[in-house]
Design a protein that fits this description.
CATH class: Mainly Alpha
Main location: membrane
InterPro entries: Atg22-like, ATG22/LtaA_families, MFS_dom, MFS_trans_sf
Strand content: under 5%
Number of strands: 2
Distance between the termini: 36 Å
Shape: globular
CATH topology: Growth Hormone, Chain: A
GO molecular function: transmembrane transporter activity
Keywords: Membrane, Transmembrane, Transmembrane helix, Transport
Order of helices and strands: HHEEHHHHHHHHHHHHHHHH
Largest sheet: 2 strands, antiparallel
Structural class: mainly alpha
Helix content: over 70%
Pfam families: ATG22 (PF11700)
Length: 453
């Protein structure tokens, strides 16, 4: 009997490996939305729609006592979707923890997001409202699916394997997003040669990202396994009422996991710094350094593919040094990056590309390891709830960095001190991270200690 049990137990790593391969495909799927729609095409296309609606770039949207220029409407949309995500994700996480068929929930949310993303294709002329609905709900469902996807990570990997699996997922995502972006930029830049006008080319590129997201989500949907929920709160009532009851119990219980809370606070700061650098890099390159659109596009593509290798490298480094030390190394590199940006000479393409390569190396690595490290500090059975707070922290406070950037820019009238000011976010985040006792946090959460911490 013991031989049979041992033989069955030995099959678990093989089953986990198969699920991990399936799980990687969701990062491949959803990265197309981030790169093609979020990073490159939607912003300029939406601003054009908004300008058409008010008769040009000098027109205004009158909203109550506010008079808004058309290009500012885009940033208000992102703010709305961010606030919605921060409100919706925690109860969704509580619901997801009570669901055995997480792969179906993941796919349903992803397909809903891709549907709204596809609506952008039909927004033409001055129909900015349809595009607004598409991006707001596309972002909302993107974040919701991300919560479920991240909550699956602890279910398909052991503590010692978590950094490697998370890093491979991020790397796979950068590769997928980069490949589709190459194809889409080829279509967009060569639209005249293939008989398309510029607007139609942009819409087709965004539609392809929605289809890519929906299509490749089929792989985890069919190949992931169900995982029965554990340690759920016994709450009576409907699924929604039980989810809110679970959420309330978790909020009361969070004080028992101070290391997880300290990490969330550290993540608030350093992730805000990362997101603000990424959001402002193109504007910095164009406005402060005077680089052409061609150079900026080439840099974006390079960052995607360098980030693929960077995520894998950081995953291996974490296997030797532990995730916490590796994240701290990454934050040190981020501080060097924003310091170099302060002195980067205008018009120097090789140095700008070198800085972009440095960003690519640490971008995927720090984000992937933050995900796997946090998963060690949270209790079993409540992965989705805690990852919902993780994503809500990401989205609900993401304006801190951009506000700092904007204030410094307004005071100094220069992008250089504005981007250098972000060093404070990496410094504070790193200092808070040093206060996380990894071994204590893992034990408090009831998880096993990995071989290297």
């Amino acid at each position: 009997m013991s031989d049979v049990t041992s033989e069955i137990a030995n099959l678990r790593p093989l089953a986990q490996a198969e699920e991990q391969k399936a799980w990687y495909w969701y990062d491949w799927a959803n990265s197309a939305y981030t790169t093609t729609i979020g990073t490159v095409f939607f912003g300029p296309y939406f601003i054009n729609l908004a300008e058409n609606a008010v008769g040009g770039e000098d027109g205004r949207f009158e909203v109550g006592s506010f008079s808004l220029p058309p290009d500012s409407l885009f940033f208000w949309l992102i703010t709305v979707s961010t606030i919605l995500s921060a409100l919706v994700l925690p109860p969704l996480g509580a619901y997801a923890d009570r669901v055995a068929n997480k792969k179906r929930l993941l796919a349903t949310l992803a397909w809903a997001g891709s549907f709204f993303a596809a609506l952008i294709f039909f927004a033409t002329g001055d129909n900015w409202l349809l595009a607004a609905v598409g991006i707001v709900f596309g972002n909302l469902f993107f974040g919701a699916a991300g919560v479920v996807n991240d909550s699956i990570l602890p279910l398909i990997s052991d503590e010692s394997d978590r950094d490697r699996v998370s890093s491979r997922g991020w790397a796979f995502g950068y590769l997928g997003g980069g490949l589709l972006l190459v194809l889409n930029l080829g279509v967009y830049l060569g639209h005249e040669a293939i008989g398309l006008d510029e607007g139609l080319a942009a819409r087709l590129c965004m539609l392809s990202a929605a289809a890519w997201w929906a299509g490749f989500t089929l792989i985890p949907f069919f190949r992931l396994s169900d995982h029965p929920p554990v340690d759920v709160e016994q709450v009576e009532g409907s699924a929604i009422r039980r989810s809110f009851g679970q959420l309330a119990a978790t909020l009361r219980d969070m004080r028992n996991y101070p290391m997880a809370l300290t990490f969330l606070l550290a993540y608030l700061f350093f992730n805000d710094g990362i997101q603000t650098v990424i959001a402002s890099a193109s504007v910095f390159g164009a406005e402060e350094l005077g680089h052409s659109q061609t150079v900026l596009i080439a840099t974006i593509l390079m960052v995607q593919f360098v980030a693929f290798g960077g995520a894998l490298f950081f995953g291996r480094l974490a296997g030797r040094l532990g995730a916490k030390r590796t994240i701290l190394i990454g934050l040190g590199i981020w501080m060097v990056i924003v310091t170099v940006a302060l002195w980067l000479p205008a018009g120097n393409v090789p140095l700008f590309l070198t800085l972009g390569a440095a960003i690519g190396i640490v971008l995927g690595g720090t984000q992937a390891l933050a995900r796997s490290y946090f998963s060690l500090l949270i209790p079993r059975g409540k992965e989705a709830e805690y990852f919902s707070f993780y994503h809500a922290m990401d989205r609900g406070t993401s304006w801190f960095g951009t506000a700092t950037f904007g204030i410094v820019l307004a005071v100094t009238d220069s992008y250089r001190p504005a981007i250098f000011a972000l060093i404070a976010f990496f410094l504070i985040g790193g200092l808070l991270l040093t206060r996380v006792d990894t071994e204590r946090g893992i034990r408090e959460a009831g998880n096993d200690l990995p071989a290297v911490i």
